[in-house]
Amino acid sequence: MGHDGGMTDHKDDRRDELAANLAKVERRIADACAAAGRSREEVTLVVVTKTYPASDVRILSELGVRHVAENRDQEAAPKAAECADLPLTWHFVGQLQTNKVRSAVGYADVVQSVDRARLVTALSKEAVRAGREVGCLIQVALDAGERDRGERGGVAPEGVEELADLVARSEGLRLDGLMTVAPLTGEYAGRQRAAFERLMDLSTDLRRAHPAATMVSAGMSGDLEDAVAAGATHVRVGTAVLGVRPRLR
Ligand SMILES: *Cc1c(COP(=O)(O)O)cnc(C)c1O
């Protein structure tokens, strides 16, 4: 490819690449739904766009993607601002420091990584200040000790109820459900299906007290089939749509 007109060529190439990857992921989700006897509409694809530019988000939007996710506020804030004209729902899926909450509340429709009371308090305060309602998922760490948080964030299963109750009574916040990342250590290491089934059990418990908290976010590029089989309502897919990231985060 020559450099003159390269912009257009590049963009067309990238568009073709993303379209092909999306079609593959779409097929995997559809097959997993069929295998589980679930309707395709029960599962929402959230494309994790971290490390990739706003131009990719724009292409994804043109290709019909409606949910995107980011894991670092420094990167997400300018990207979301550049894409403010697009009909997208923005999910925050990374560990969120309380000093980044004001910024995150400016663009995040859903924070999937709520894992401690201080974060709930900060989110509520900033949501009220911004006049926004922020959806919250409690991130569950299936590898955490009873009173700990997980290596990659998340609250131990024993702490879900208390945190969920706090979200539910916090102004400006909406309790939407649960999220997990398949653990790399502990009893669920290498057992994604079992991990996601455990998350579903926790969701069943949660919905007894909070019937509207129906979201179950689980599954990434490598294990989305396990998540769909277990009953996930949202899968978070990065690599399989956008390509291998330059650095693991
Ligand atoms: C990066 C990330 C994903 C996507 O992972 P892939 O393996 O690239 O699909 C999903 N969830 C969270 C929380 C992430 O940080």
Description:
The structure is a single chain. The protein is of the alpha/beta class. It has a single domain, classed as TIM Barrel (Alpha-Beta Barrel). The protein is built from nine helices and eight strands. The chain has helices spanning 6-36, 54-62, 73-82, 101-105, 117-130, 160-168, 192-209, 224-230, 239-242, and strands at 44-48, 67-70, 89-92, 110-114, 134-140, 173-180, 215-217, 234-237. It has an eight-stranded parallel β-sheet. Strand 6 (173-180), helix 7 (192-209) and strand 7 (215-217) form a beta-alpha-beta unit. It starts with 5 loop residues before the first helix and ends in a 7-residue tail after the last helix. Mean pLDDT is 94; it is low at 1-5. Bound molecules: pyridoxal-5'-phosphate.
